[in-house]
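Record type: monomer structure entry
Structure origin: computed from sequence
Chain ID: A
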Amino acid sequence: MKAYHIQSLADQSLLFTGVFKNFRACVETAIDQGVSLAEADLRGRNLSFAMLDGGVFDAADFSGSNLCGANLSEIAASGSVWNDADLTGACLAYSDLSAAVFRATQFGATDIAGCDLRRALFIDCPSCFHLNFSEALSMQGAYYICGPQAAPMSHPPLVMLGLAPGPVTMLDSHVLYRGELIERNYWLAQFKSCVR
C-alpha cells in the first residue's frame, strides 16, 4: 500500500489522493465517492479491468494508458484525450465521448453501444474501423484524419474486407484505401475503369 494522487492537467492541483494497493484502486475509489475527475492527468496508467462506470472525465487525458477490459460505461468524457491508449475489450457503452480525440488508439472488441461520438476525432487510428459504429448514438461532425488529410465520418463507415491488398473503408465523402484517404467519386471512377 502506498499513497497515490490524481492531479489536474491544468495546474497539477490534487483532485483526489489516498493510500491504495495501486493506482487503479485510487481511481475506482474516487469514482465510487462521486469525485469529478474532469481534466485529470491519467496518462500512462495501468487501468486495465478498472470499474470506472459513471465517472466524470470531461477533458481528462488517458494518453498511453492501458484500459483493456475496463468498464467505462456511462462516463462523461467530453473533450477527453485517448492518444495511444489501449481500449481492447473495454466497455464504453452509453458514454459521452463528444469531441474526444483518439490518436493511434487501439480498439478491438470495444463496446460503443449508445455512445455519443459527435465531433470526435479519430487520427491515424485504423483500428477504429473494428468498432460497431452503427450502435453509436451519434457521430455527427466526427472526422477520420490520416496524415494531413481529414474526412468527415458522420455516418457508420462501410468496411469491405477480403480485397487485395487490403480493406476498403467508405466514409461520408472519402475512401480509406492502403492508408490513404481518396475522394470517393474519384476512387469509384478509378475502380469502375479497372473492372471493365
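Annotation 1: The chain has a mean pLDDT of 94.
Annotation 2: The first strand starts at residue 2 and ends at 7.
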